[in-house]
Amino acid sequence: MSVPATPRGAAAPPGQPRKAATAAWIGSALEYYDFFIYGSAAALIFPEVFFDESDPATATLLSLATFGVAYAARPIGALFLGHFGDRAGRKKIMVFTLMLMGVSTFLIGCLPTRDQVGGLAPVLLVACRVLQGISAAGEQASANSMTLEHAPPGRRGFFTSFTLSGTQGGQLLATLVFIPVAALPEDQLLSWGWRLPFWLSVGVAVVGYVIRRKLDETPAFAQQAAEEGVAKLPLVILLREHWADVLRVIAGALVASVSTIFTVWALAYATSDAVGMSRTAMLWVGALANVVALAAIPLWATLSDRIGRRPVFLIGAAGSAVTMFLYLWAVSTGSYPLTFLTGIVCFGVVYSAANGVWPAFYGEMFATRVRLSGVAIGTQIGFAAAGFAVTFAAQIAGPGGDDWSAVALFTAALCVPPVVAAVSARETHRVPTELLGERAESGAVRPEKVTA
């Protein structure tokens, strides 16, 4: 591997931190636009298009299960993409994941329905969903590593938060696109209208390639490759030297259950016969919450650069357990003002504390040579559980799908492991980037040169 040497501890070239953050934001927004339009469709459209309409409750359960399938595929994708990202560099993985997401999402918009091909339709849907999951497995980890390793001292929290604010931007865009689609007449919506948001993903591949192909590789990765070579088997090093941090990231990533319950299950519940709220109104709840999150995420991340990652993450994890209960209660009342208010507070403000700081918090636990693998594998295992939280919530809600309090308690329980992970973690916001992942306090020394 030919990589120019970089002086140890050297800063990124002027303009590169901002360029990397911008690429991470736009790329993540476009990628997660694809990912979240599937969530909206799984809650509102797919039960009638791909599953048996004679049993609406089972159709909804199966549709939500396909949402979780991508999360099951993500740990597998993380193993491969993390390995190649720590060997070939962050930039190549960022380009690959975006292209894969764009293609797989476009194909979903082209799928035949159950009425056209019978049981083959949901099989093809699941196959495309698996490809989405593999793509998402490497997207955030590679973008996080790129921004963290380009960030100037003392601002890693702020710059890495662009990945997650981009994710929220993608979710906002997906919601805004679905609002007019959901307002179409029922026959048009179910015949061709639902396909339009998926076809728009053609632009994802084009825009993503243009933005990301011009990025420079990070100074930290270039330095690692030049001085010590890249690890032949990053996973072996990761599990030998960073296994405890991998477990912390897995536990911390369970906080994403708040997002999946809010985005998918609460949407299905609110628009069900049990509550009867309109699709359009509930989509606007998500849209406004994401607008607030776009402002809240960099603010929380900047605060973490001053007071540390742990306290900010704890605010988000513990606070989400409480505010999610309030949000689901508000939905159960059918009150639009209460639902809008609690949705914005829960998802837009409180959850953003954990969501905005985890890219730096997790990435700083690992050394450069295994950072992408560590973040990818740890987050994707945790996210897999978060993805299937929607399916479990649908079962916990009972035959009528209206036991919101049980779902709220379930979500709160999933916030406990993230709290434990944060309490047990080291504070790293003041550690120089080149020293991240080193364990001076435990007597560990920097590993010997790894053959390229």
From TrEMBL:
GO MF terms listed in the record are: transmembrane transporter activity
Q: Where is the Major facilitator superfamily (MFS) profile domain?
A: 20-430
Arranged from A to Z, the UniProt key words for this protein are: Cell membrane, Membrane, Transmembrane, Transmembrane helix, Transport
Identification of the protein by name? MFS transporter
User: What is the membrane topology listed in the Swiss-Prot or TrEMBL record?
Assistant: Multi-pass membrane protein
- Membrane-spanning residues where? 32-51, 57-81, 93-114, 192-211, 246-269, 281-300, 312-330, 336-362, 374-398, 404-425
Q: Do you know which CDD domains this protein is assigned to?
A: MFS_ShiA_like
- Which cellular compartments is it found in? Cell membrane
Write down any Gene Ontology CC term: plasma membrane
Which InterPro entries has this protein been placed in?
MFS_dom (IPR020846), MFS_sugar_transport-like (IPR005828), MFS_trans_sf (IPR036259)
Pfam families in the cross-refs: Sugar_tr
